[in-house]
């Protein structure tokens, strides 16, 4: 269960690569186009991004703005880091909630994608799912870093996972 985002992300990246390669070959070798690949690629790319963000949080490799960390005194760095992560957690919760409302409105007002005729609710369903996964993974990340003993705990956990 720990690696589900990683495995699905790799599958989506593989599918995206294969589909775009097929489109390039079709276009430049056979002088034709496969209509559904462009729409499919956009959908897969967005799903890939949202799931990959959750996976990156698990690894503690998400991008952080560290400009304030460099100018704040050591006493304030930990407090600021906790505040920033709590703010991010709140943002994720809000986005999960409003993403769910958005998808629910698409379920009520049924619409489909133009070419593949996939319900828009499925296409945009990654918004609440992705933010919910980010919220869960960020909460676990915060627990590991702030409760279990700092960022070094995260890197030790990462090394153990790589050895297995």
What is the element layout, followed by pairings?
Layout: H1 4-28, H2 35-59, H3 67-71, H4 74-108, H5 120-123, H6 126-147, H7 151-163
How does this structure look, described?
This protein has one domain (4-163). The protein has helices at 4-28, 35-59, 67-71, 74-108, 120-123, 126-147, 151-163. The longest helix has 35 residues, at 74-108. Helix 1 (4-28) packs antiparallel against helix 2 (35-59), helix 2 (35-59) packs parallel to helix 6 (126-147) and helix 4 runs antiparallel to helix 6. With 164 residues, it is mainly α. 79% of the residues lie in helices and 0% in strands. The chain contains seven helices and no strands.
Main features:
7 helices; mainly alpha; 164 residues; elongated
Low-confidence stretches: none
Multimerization state: single chain
Q: Specify the helix fraction band.
A: over 70%
Characterize the overall form: elongated
**Structural domain tally:** 1
Major pleated sheet: none
Kindly report the average pLDDT value.
Answer: 83
Note the total helix count: 7
The helix/strand series, from N terminus to C terminus, equals HHHHHHH
Number of DSSP strand runs = 0
Question: Proportion of β residues?
Answer: under 5%
Radius of gyration: 20 Å
Q: How far is the first residue's CA from the last residue's CA?
A: 15 Å
Helix-and-strand structural type = mainly alpha
